[in-house]
Amino acid sequence: MIRINLARTPGSKGKKGGKKGSSGPLLVTLLVLVLLGGGGYYYYTEIHLAADESETAKAPAPPVVPKPDAPPSARPSSQVRTQMVENVVKEFDNDVITAAATRGLNTPYALMTTPEKINYEVLFGRNIFNMITKCTPPGIKFRTLEIENFQTVYASGAGLSRHMVQEMFTAFRNERGELLPKPYSNIKDDPGTGGNFTFTIAHKPNFGLEVGDPFQALDHLGFRDGLPQSVREFSRIAGANNFKMSAAPSQITVERAGNYRRVVYRATGMSTYKDFHKFVLALYSEKLPVAFKKVSMTPVRDEQVRVTAEILFTVKE
């Protein structure tokens, strides 16, 4: 409420300032005016405040100021692409998407394009010898070991016990690819070997497209006129890793594949399995784009093996 002090209202000093006969009506008049004015002011004030409160209730809340570390506009641009990809994926059947992804990772060698084959072939030597070494327990002796056309590994030999040979078979089954069933892979007791268990094994590896490997052969291919230098480099690395070739590699076939020339050389020599594995890894580490199309190993004496290999060089036309 608004309080008004009537004692200080102008004209209230009747004894000194105003006429005696007119003080009564004047006082009544002033009182009425004050009351009317005060009431009007009070009424106006209450409505105004009510209107302010009503407008405040209707007004939108002030915008929330974001924290400095999370501004609304600081979304990564990849978010837009992520939503776009999600929208596109929704338009396709999940089984189709899954099949396409699986095909990209595990395409069989025979179905690969020429560039995919080139990368696969160069990595195949490292992968296949790593797999054989990993899967073969101590006490297993190979009589033959053959690798053919980037698709099959054949081996025969003997183990000290059936359990040892079964352990090797299980290891191959757990690798990428397929262990072929009987009669291609089998175990049998051979009394003529002094109680050893002989075996044959056939495995069809599938290492897939290793697009994440730091060595992609296509990035290192030379041209046709640089092929002799690549062959010499192959011989140098072989000698440095105790693969003693009986002669320089000799060319046996040449074929065209699109914009590439594919040249196969034959190399023969002596080594141990361990040293030949080291040699294959050295070719990989030095990024020489050469592939082992075929490898045949047969024991000679002690740990020495005779190696016959077909070496594939791919060059640009």
How would you portray this structure in words?
Strands 1, 2, 3, 4, 5, 6, 7, 8, 9 and 10 form a ten-stranded antiparallel sheet that branches. Helix 4 packs antiparallel against helix 5 (162-173). The protein has seven helices and ten strands. The longest helix has 36 residues, at 23-58. It is globular, with a radius of gyration of 46 Å. A hairpin with a 7-residue loop joins strand 4 and strand 5 (197-205). Helices cover 39% and strands 25% of the residues. The protein has a domain at 111-316: Ribosomal protein S6/Translation elongation factor EF1B (Alpha-Beta Plaits, 2-Layer Sandwich), CATH 3.30.70. It has 317 residues and is of the alpha+beta class.
Major beta sheet summary: 10 strands, antiparallel
- Summed up, the helix count is 7
Radius of gyration: 46 Å
Residue fraction in strands:
25-35%
Anisotropy-based shape: globular
Helicity range:
25-40%
- Which parts are unreliable, with pLDDT below 50 for 5 consecutive residues or more? 1-23, 25-60, 67-102
